[in-house]
Amino acid sequence: xxxxxxxxxxxxxxxxxxxxxxxxxxxxxxxxxxxxxxxxxxxxxxxxxxxxxxxxxxxxxxxxxxxxxxxxxxxxxxxxxxxxxxxxxxxxxxxxxxxxxxxxxxxxxxxxxxxxxxxxxxxxxxxxxxxxxxxxxxxxxxxxxxxxxxxxxxxxxxxxxxxxxxxxxxxxxxxxxxxxxxxxxxxxxxxxxxxxxxxxxxxxxxxxxxxxxxxxxxxxxxxxxxxxxxxxxxxxxxxxxxxxxxxxxxxxxxxxx
Length: 257
Prior knowledge:
It is a single chain. The protein is mainly alpha-helical. It folds into two domains: 1-103, no CATH class; 105-257, Serine Threonine Protein Phosphatase 5, Tetratricopeptide repeat (Alpha Horseshoe), CATH 1.25.40. Helix content is 76%, strand content 0%. The chain has 14 helices and no strands. Helix 12 crosses helix 13 (215-227). The N and C termini lie far apart (47 Å).
């Protein structure tokens, strides 16, 4: 046992995992998941340091992993460079994101979709590209892409608006904890847009988003208490309390998907 452990320690990662899985499928799968999770956390840390702090060491580590063909590293490097705001870094970031997306990385498709949806200083919004990338990312389980697909279906963006499809995508993202999607789904239930009008459900989703410090949801609840809307009784105390919460949430808003 001691010899096997020593050999495994000195063997590269890809070869180290194989005999463990072969010997004990359950334990091997668990070990693989732990390894993948640790690697994901490491890449995320490098991305944060490289993107927001301009850490050259973290950027070099991401480049090394990306050049070795690691798709998640290519996506992380591309996103970090994209976030830098510099024209040269922007171009390199797009190239890495495209490479990762071509290999099927959902996060890369999401970032490219968001870039196409919003546009930037170099390129105007591209609805067709946004649809393409968000659909691929959402199909792979990216919840941020599900939220943006809700927006695309709601507004049309080159296609016929589909409120029912929008609500379905908003619900998928809301169920995964995306506060903005909760707000949009609450609006859909409030208006009866793509779903049956249901004020109780609207309040429930506003409250769920409010718990995540989503300012617009807290404000919607505040106004409902002020005017007795959405099945809520007029309550000046609750109105004022929600206004205070709104002010706080504006300083600490929910993270964008």
